[in-house]
């Protein structure tokens, strides 16, 4: 995750953060950029030229890493990029921090603490997810779907609907502007503070329309981050609860999107994102947890039934628009910091055709 995302996720969870070393923190609001005094802490930022301490993450350097990453011993680390895994919790209280690191990487070389076992069961966006999906590997069709359902339904943390607001400010953060989120359909970068229900605000779009199965905003499918995305209030209302298909008229306020009386076509850059969110929901919610069994079909007339279509279009869109870095990072942040489950079709897009093709 980015430094900005780590700053917004000070909940005691484990996170992997990539940023630039910008100095040595010596107090909550003091970071030295020269004449370093110790090897026990460093400050990370998303920009190598960042000077605002509010945009920095203070990283504890434990003894295993001081000889390699401490700035007193290694002043040349300044302005270089590193990746750190550890506990996201305030350091130099109340400043945002990362403590008890289990790995620190620079220049593609990993330096792992000799007293810490490898965390292979906690996949990151850049490491293998084979351990997470161990019980699904080698399977196909219904056997694969059943295995994935069990995997992504186990050990899940459910958010409240209010909690979704703050989560979306992290999962959908604009990688070029940490003060903004990217809106799903329109692609607009909008201030995180403009969340609400007024004109010009962004709100919480249920990609798998909540009326399809009548799950509303209840903790579970109604608050599942894997299909909730920020979108402009007016565009969200225009999409309403329509199924997905190609064609229609240009959607007002969302260039590249099209709509008619019963369907919505998202812009090309997120067609695959939409498809993989729908496929996730159809595997995650199978009717065994008090909610409806959500499925896909080839109709655009599903209304309140627990189905959404068109599956033929969703299959084509998934193949047309493979997962990009934004989608992969989002999947990892949801896993590491919020729900602790993954969207398997982002990690393994080939599984889409095996289950739904």
From TrEMBL:
Residues 1-105 form the Endonuclease YhcR N-terminal domain. It comes from the Bacteria. Residues 100-129 have a biased composition (Low complexity). Keywords: Hydrolase, Nuclease. Transmembrane segments: none annotated. Coiled coil: none annotated. Residues 95-129, 240-265 are annotated as: Disordered. GO terms for molecular function: hydrolase activity; nuclease activity. PANTHER family: ENDONUCLEASE-1 (PTHR33607). This is Endonuclease YhcR N-terminal domain-containing protein. It comes from Paractinoplanes tereljensis.
């Amino acid at each position: 995750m980015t430094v900005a995302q780590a700053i917004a996720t000070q909940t005691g969870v484990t996170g992997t953060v990539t940023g630039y070393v910008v100095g040595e923190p010596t107090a909550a609001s003091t970071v030295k950029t020269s004449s370093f005094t110790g090897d026990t802490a460093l400050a990370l930022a998303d920009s190598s030229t960042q000077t605002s301490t509010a945009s920095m993450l203070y990283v504890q350097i434990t003894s295993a890493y001081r000889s390699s990453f401490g700035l007193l011993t290694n002043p040349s680390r300044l302005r270089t990029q590193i990746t750190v895994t550890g506990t996201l919790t305030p350091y130099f209280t109340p400043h945002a921090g990362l403590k008890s690191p289990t790995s620190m990487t620079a220049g593609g070389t990993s330096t792992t603490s000799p007293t810490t076992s490898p965390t292979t069961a906690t996949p990151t966006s850049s490491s293998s997810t084979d351990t997470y999906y161990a019980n699904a590997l080698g399977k196909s069709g219904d056997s694969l779907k059943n295995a994935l359902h069990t995997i992504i339904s186990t050990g899940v943390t459910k958010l409240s609907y209010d909690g979704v607001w703050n989560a979306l400010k992290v999962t959908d953060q604009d990688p070029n502007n940490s003060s903004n989120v990217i809106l799903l359909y329109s692609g607009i970068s909008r201030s995180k503070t403009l969340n609400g229900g007024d004109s010009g605000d962004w709100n919480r779009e249920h990609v798998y329309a909540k009326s399809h199965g009548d799950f509303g905003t209840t903790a579970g499918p109604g608050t599942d981050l894997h299909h909730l995305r920020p979108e402009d209030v007016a565009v969200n209302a225009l999409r309403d609860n329509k199924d997905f298909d190609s064609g229609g008229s240009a959607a007002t306020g969302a260039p590249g999107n099209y709509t008619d009386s019963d369907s919505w076509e998202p812009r090309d850059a997120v067609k695959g994102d939409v498809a993989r969110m729908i496929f996730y929901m159809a595997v995650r919610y199978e009717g065994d947890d008090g909610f409806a069994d959500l499925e896909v079909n080839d109709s655009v007339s599903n209304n309140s039934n627990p189905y959404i279509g068109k599956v033929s279009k969703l299959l084509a869109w998934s193949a047309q628009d493979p997962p990009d870095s934004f989608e992969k990072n989002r999947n990892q942040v949801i896993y590491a910091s919020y729900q602790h489950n993954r969207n398997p079709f982002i990690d393994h897009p080939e599984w889409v055709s095996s289950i739904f093709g």
